[in-house]
Design goal:
Radius of gyration: 18 Å
Number of helices: 7
Order of helices and strands: HHHHEHEHEEEEH
Number of strands: 6
Strand order of the largest sheet: 3-4-5-2-1-6
CATH superfamily of the largest domain: Beta Polymerase, domain 2
Shape: globular
CATH class of the largest domain: Alpha Beta
Number of domains: 2
Largest sheet: 6 strands, mixed
Length: 202
């Protein structure tokens, strides 16, 4: 049996944290590496997001194959509902719900591209939607402002954190930049509709 490299071990451990705790990939990789180092594993080069995602898919296939597809569809349907509501802000679905690895523990992430970032906040206020204000740090750039709403999923029977990342409208030019394997990191409402239609067909 081939010995697993330290980076692979980090990817496997990170995948478990992503699935079991609903954590985001970037923070999870660092947490997994630190936990393995404390256990005597030594320092390891962090795996790529794609490598962690591969392990997440494998973990889901082994341990959550029965319930995960239905949970993913429920989250995508909730995303569609909110993308329609937020259509003036050019919403793009990202994260695990877009990539197909989400479970009921995952947050719903929408990137909004606004001429005025305050406009999205005003829209929520006018719709009487409660939200929290947060920021997402970025290396070498200003933090991304975020609005976090607790959205209700009737299909799941629970509230789901809906994270609205507010970007300048010019940032939309790079929104569909693919990963190292040619897959997009996010998709607009039309792309999500195609995903849901293909899932219904199968």
């Amino acid at each position: 049996m081939r010995t697993m490299s330290r980076a692979e071990a980090v990817a496997v451990h990170a995948a478990r944290l992503v699935v079991d705790e609903g954590l985001e990939y970037a923070a999870t990789k660092r947490k997994a590496a630190a936990e393995l180092q404390r256990r005597g594993g030594g320092r390891a080069e962090l795996p790529s997001t794609e490598e962690v995602e591969d392990q997440v898919r494998e973990h889901l296939a082994i341990f959550h194959a029965d319930e995960q597809p239905a949970e993913l569809r429920a989250l995508r349907e909730l995303a569609r509902e909110w993308m329609r509501r937020l259509a003036p802000f050019r919403p793009h679905l990202s994260g695990a719900v877009w990539r197909g690895t989400a479970t009921r523990r995952s947050a719903l992430r929408l990137d909004l591209y606004c001429d005025d970032p305050k406009a999205a906040e005003i829209a929520l206020v006018n719709a009487d939607v409660r939200y929290d204000v947060q920021t997402q740090p970025r290396t070498g750039a200003e933090p991304v402002p975020m609005l976090v709403v607790q959205a209700t999923s009737r299909a799941l029977g629970q509230r789901v954190p809906l994270v609205l990342a507010l970007h300048d409208h010019l940032a939309q030019r790079g929104a569909l930049k693919p990963d190292a394997r040619g897959r997009s990191w996010r998709g607009d409402l039309a792309a999500l509709e195609r995903l849901l239609s293909s899932e219904a067909a199968t």
